[in-house]
Amino acid sequence: MDILTKKKKDTTRLLSVILLLVALFYSPEFRATPPPYKVVFAFNTGMPQLEILHKRIDAFSHSNILTPGQVVDLNATLTNRGAEPLVDAKIEIPIPANMHYVAGSLAPPSSGQVYWSHPASDDPNATPGGKIIWDLTAVEIPSGDVLYANLNYRLRVTTACVLLLGESGSCSLDATVDGTYSARGKNTLEAIAGKFVKGYETTGGLRPIYGGFDLKIVPPLAFLTSCSAVFQNSPMVFNYFCGTASRPIPRNDITSKYPAGTQFYKGHIDGLILASNLITGDFDVAAGTNIFYAVVYGMDPHCFLTILVKIQPIYSKPTVKNGLRCVGTTGELEVERSAEGIRDQLELVYFANATTTTALSAPPQPTAVGVYTYYVAEGKSQDGVWCFGPRVAFTLTVVRPPTGTWSQLNYEICDEESQKMVIQTTAAVRWQIKTTDTWQPLTAENWPGYLLIAANEIVFGLGNAAVDLVKIRVVMTNQAGCEQTSEEVTVRFRPCRLPTNPMLPSQFSKRI
Question: What φ, ψ does residue 343 adopt, rounded to 5°?
Answer without folding.
Answer: -60, -40
